[in-house]
Amino acid sequence: MGSAKKGSQQHDLVTANLASPRQNHRAEDIPMRSRPLPARRHQSGVFTILLLLIVLTGSCLRFAYLPDKPLWFDEGFTRLRISGRDEHDEAISSLFTGRPIPPTAFEPFQEAQPGSPLIGTVRGLARKEPQHPPLYFLLARSASLLMGNSLLGMRSVSALCGALTVPAMVLLALEAYGDRAIALLAGALAAVSPLWIRFAQDGRPYSLWLLLVILAHVAYLRLVRQPGRTAALSYGLVLGLALLTQLLTVLTLFSHALHLVLSGAAWRALILRSYLVATTLALLVASPWAVVLAVKHSTAVATTRHLLRPMPTVALLGHGLDNLNTLFTAWPRFPGPLGPVVSVLLLLGVAAVLWAALRRRHNGQGLFLVLISLVPVLPFVIADLLLGGQRSVQVKYLLPGSIGVFLALAGWLVLAARGRIVRLLAAGLLSLGFVSSLFLLRAPTWWGLSQVDNDLGRLLREAHQPRIVADGSFAVLALLSHQLRGHGSFLLTRSPQTLRLPPHEGETFLYQPSAELKETITKRMGCTLQRRYAERREGGSLYELFEILDCPRRSAPL
Description:
It is a single chain. The protein contains 23 helices and six strands. With 558 residues, it is mainly alpha-helical. Among the domains are: 75 residues, no CATH class; 100 residues. The protein has a six-stranded mixed beta sheet with strand order 1-3-2-4-6-5, covered by helices on one side. Helix 22 links the parallel strand 2 and strand 3.
């Protein structure tokens, strides 16, 4: 007893020294485990085991039904980039010939070829999509070559990264709170989050980005707690890799810089020196692609111009609430008149949890959690409100902000767990996320994404020897070729005025035609068109499929 009392007195003395007025900062504002959590009842072994099972099961969910969801629009560009081919210089000249071709003719532009140089992938990104750094695409290319050019191969990188985000969240929560129960609950919330699972099965860079941002947070907290060469090297390398995955990582860097200043840690010479060394290293790692973006800035602006389309404020708010809902449930918008009320209450609940974290002084992690939650999100919201656009609608850009939300929520649930209500709330959130994620995994698409391609593919596979006449986007037609699964053929052109329709025993369709192609088919060839499908794709564009029924002058040139 005497020894325990003496140890307690020594700890109080250390805490008092850390908070001494002689310091230029408050120890409780620095994200180190310098002060203990307040005493609370020991969590039961059953609670720990249940959370651990959820963490493990949620990690495995990332691999469930992995190749089953259809290829969607952006994934088509991933496949194009990992092939190392160019859609304009090679694909269009090879495919848009005005002669019938099988769906398999698209495969060379959708598959990584053994022996093809890596530079093709990097060059394609630099020329056509400089806003996307190459790290993920190089990894996806390697996985496709290793596992076969299938959706499973391409998506395996995201699934593996998604599975690793769960233990990474546990590690981050341990670093921030120093509490096992909070760490396991934070990992469990991330494990069953439908939004995180959805991006873990997406052949795009965002699952890798999310993992690297979490690890960057861990490295930053360790640098502040134990500054030095090793901490600076770890933080700099992880942050650099995150920048090579997604350049928006600069917002994470900015949130760390803000925390360093606002917490007072910047006034400690060793911490400041380690931080500057680390950020310099990170910027050096990412500098080659920063040069590419600077040179190809106009291309990046043109490629992302759709984000600048105006959207009413009410619609922006609605999409924002839907995005927040998907952190916890697979149903973005609750049905019925109470749906908006539930969404607003959820927003207020998250705001209250962040405010509670900010007011909590004993851990020193509150300011950190608020900054990493808001800094990655607010610039998009503010830009949309002041300048117009729909940047904040893109939930993929807001993924880093969800890290802080889960951490703050886990901390509040455990620290406030004095009664059954809070425990029931935790159980309800985990159950809702887990059950709805299972439904989402088994659904035919992600929230209706690529439903157009699914519907068109089913309609055309049921047709007799379908032939698709088109002059549209290579990316859109590549998706359709994937849905056809080798069934039917295409007749593609870039010069509708010279088009001829050779005799064909099966059914002939006109897909997404330009005004010029439609005029050639109807007026100059005298064809009769029957609309078989019309639907708006995500983003608002109308997609139409017509069946060509009768063409008295089908071979008549212009």
